[in-house]
Each structure stands twice: as C-alpha cells, then as structure tokens.
Amino acid sequence: MNLAEKSQATLDVFGELESETKQFVSESGLGCVSGCGFCCANPKVPASPLEFLPLAFDLYAKGLAESTLQSLESTEEGASCVIYRPQSADGKQGFCGNHSKRGMICRLFAASARKTKYGKKDLIICKVLKEEKAEEFQNTSERINKDMDIPLATAFYSRLDEIDQSLCQQFTINEAIAFALELVLRYKFYEEQEVDMIA
C-alpha cells in the first residue's frame, strides 16, 4: 500500500468505529459535554502518525500542510493539540478544528473500553464525564460487562497495526501530527516529480 492507500484504509477503520461509537453513546448517554476541551488541552495525549494521515492529507488538499507543520515546529513543548481551538483562558473549553479527520485516540475516548487483567471491560473515560454524568457512568460501567456493546480500543488499534505497524509507534499528539505531515509532504513532492517526468 502506498501512503494514500494507508490513509484510506485508516479512514475505513474510522468509519466502522464511528458506527459502533454512535450506537454506544446513544445507549449509554455518555457523549462528551458540549464545548469541553479538557482532554484536548492535554499535550501528552499519545497518538500515532498513522491515525493522523487522513488529517495530513486533508490539510495538504486545503493548502495548509506546510503552514501547520511550521506552526508545530515553532510550538513550545507542552502545547495542546495544534488542531484544537481553545475558547477559555485555561484552555479547557474549546472545539476540534478538524473533527471529521481527528485521530483514533480522539474517537475512542469516552466511547470505548479496555480489558483489565481479570478480563473485565473498563471504560476509557475522563474525570469530567465521571463527575458530570456520574449516574450514566456507573450504570454503563456495569452494563458493558453484562448486556451493552462497546468498542474495544485494543481491537481497533490492532486494525491500524495491520495497515502499517511502523507508523503505529506512539508519540505525543503534536509529534504524531508533525510526523504525518512530513510523510504526506514528501509523498506529494515525489508524486509531483513523477507527473513532471511523465509530462
């Protein structure tokens, strides 16, 4: 698979995840609180370059790849996700600047589970939802181990691994986005060179 095909394969996985998370959120009532950017403001969110290839291709198509990469290169260490648009002084209120092309980690949070060493499903969720939707959280935590379907994070990460294991290495979110942008810019540069040679 070339880079564009890997990006499309990643989007296909996202599409499947989307339908599963929609069903789960509808049943559990645990959707993110509107305008909350608590998780997005965390600079240490782990992510892989592969899950941000669709974003990088989208930014390239919009003519924003190079400026976004420059912005990332001049961003201080410890800054929140470059795509996040904070709307409050503490950065904890805001929105995603490219929600449709957000990464896997952003899609899984508050809508998936991991398995404990005892085989029990454990919700991957933030402090905000635990506190603001305490009843739903408690109810859902019990039901996912009985009768409620929930996407398993490991299953979806395994699917990405099958696309390209080397691009699934974990970085901080901004490092992962920068890596993806560099790959796409290089890929597009060589693609254009080939077109010029044929012409």
Write structural notes for this entry.
Helices cover 52% and strands 9% of the residues. The chain has helices at 3-28, 53-61, 65-74, 104-108, 127-132, 134-143, 153-163, 173-198, and strands spanning 46-47, 84-86, 94-96, 112-115, 121-124, 171-172. The chain contains eight helices and six strands. It has one domain (3-191). A two-stranded antiparallel sheet has the order 1-6. A two-stranded antiparallel ribbon has the order 2-3. A two-stranded antiparallel sheet has the order 4-5. With 199 residues, it is mainly alpha-helical. Helix 1 runs antiparallel to helix 7, helix 2 packs across helix 8 (173-198) and helix 3 packs antiparallel against helix 8. This is Putative zinc-or iron-chelating protein. InterPro entries: Puta_zinc/iron-chelating_dom. It comes from Algoriphagus yeomjeoni. Pfam families: CxxCxxCC (PF03692).
List the helices and strands and how they pair.
Blueprint: H1 3-28, E1 46-47, H2 53-61, H3 65-74, E2 84-86, E3 94-96, H4 104-108, E4 112-115, E5 121-124, H5 127-132, H6 134-143, H7 153-163, E6 171-172, H8 173-198
Antiparallel strand pairs: 1-6, 2-3, 4-5
Pfam family, one: CxxCxxCC
Organism: Algoriphagus yeomjeoni
Protein name: Putative zinc-or iron-chelating protein
Helix vs. strand class = mainly alpha
Mean pLDDT: 93
Helix content: 40-55%
- Major sheet: arrangement of strands: 1-6
Could you tell me how far the N terminus lies from the C terminus, measured between alpha carbons in angstroms?
Answer: 25 Å
Shape: globular
Share in β-strands: 5-15%
Q: Structurally, how many domains make up the residues?
A: 1
Write the element-wise H/E pattern from the N-terminal end onward: HEHHEEHEEHHHEH
Ranges where pLDDT stays below 50 over 5 or more residues in a row are: none
Counted by DSSP, the helix tally is 8
Biggest sheet layout: 2 strands, antiparallel
Number of strands: 6
What Rg is obtained from the alpha carbons, in whole angstroms?
A: 18 Å
